[in-house]
Amino acid sequence: MVINTHYSWTKRWGILLLLSFVMFTGYLFIDILSPINTWVEYIYGWDDDVYGMYASSELFLNVFLLFLIIGGFLLDKKGTRFMARLTGAFMLTGALIELYAFTDSFENSWLHTVIDKVYISHSISLMPASAKLASLGFMIFGAGLEGAGLLVMRCIVKWFEGKELALALGIETILCRLGVICSTTIIPKISNIIFPYSILGLIFIGVLIVLIGISLLMFYSYYDNKISISSPYAIQAERFTTKGLKKTLQSKVFWIFVLLCICYYALLYCGQAFLSKALVQDLGYDEGFVSKVWLFLPTIAIVLSPFLCSIFDIWGRTISFILVGGILTFLYFLIITFILPAYHSNFALYLAISLLSLSYAIIPAAMWPTVTKVVDRSVLGSAYGLMFWLQNIGLFCFPIAFGGIYFKFGYKAAFISFVLLSIATILLSILLLLEDKNNKHELELPNIR
User: Smallest Cα–Cα separation from 417: which of 439, 399, 432, 430?
Assistant: First the structure.
């Protein structure tokens, strides 16, 4: 890749904000129904199991039909403009299908009758027709959003390699998190003003916001293509090569990063889900209190991420910080497993959540920019796609394993398994440090050169 030094700071950061806003709109739509799921259950006849199947449908195409891997390959092979059109079409189609599922037109149509009779499995056959169609739309939208995520990450690397890469990726991640927060706070209030107590109105607003995001993505793809043709100093993204793929897949460091990614995100998301359940059912905490405590996690991460990312860009030491993040995660699970059940201390709970929040600010901000140092540029999209796919496989398998332990042996046994997995993240971080020291991958060097 040719690192561009001719484009202004303003242009690079303007492109970053545009691409980040695209992801903001997508993540806003992902959780659009979560604040009103009780309304959906009451009005459309859904229950907790149906809503759970709807929520999990977002991962189906990406994980089980390998859309994440296919999307990464197409991004590397076909380029930015093709991928922008493809992901935009998926996102818009999925959002419109989900919107249609809640309309009276669908309720009174022949399609409703047909879908209601569709039998794929026993559990799906029990779902209302609106839930089946909404799940189909959500599935298609999720495939488009994950593909857009790969596209945005590759474009950010293209524009910020050798510059403030960690900060750029950190800001994009913050916008994604803010999208989720807005979908559960601000957007329902706006919807209630414009369309009082209307589920359809809320989804309609979400679709409009997604449409704005897709329009900006199309604009960027046109702009990127235009400057690639017209400017003698254009940043050229390298196209897919089998040599680059072979080089990446043979990299020991890349696979250590993959394992670290799987272990850490399993700890983060599975640990949060199981702890929320255990705090209420096993330790007697109030459900409302638990929900408020978890607000610490994204809040601390959002506040600290820009500062930490700037450190990684200027000073480096990303693998050392990943090790620190792994130790913080280990301490979090020690407190949750042994101290909290013994003392039922709110201070211990807040301390544990703060440690996890700090690790959540550190590890993603340090890991994702550093991966680019060991991946051939011609297969960057494919590499990220493979990592995200394996991460999602882990998020599918680990809850089943931890759930089995929790059901058979109880709270402490389940969380001891989390402690052991957190030790694995520490060992993987140490292994990365040793690999970098012995083979000089320059992983600890700053991003700004």
Answer: 399
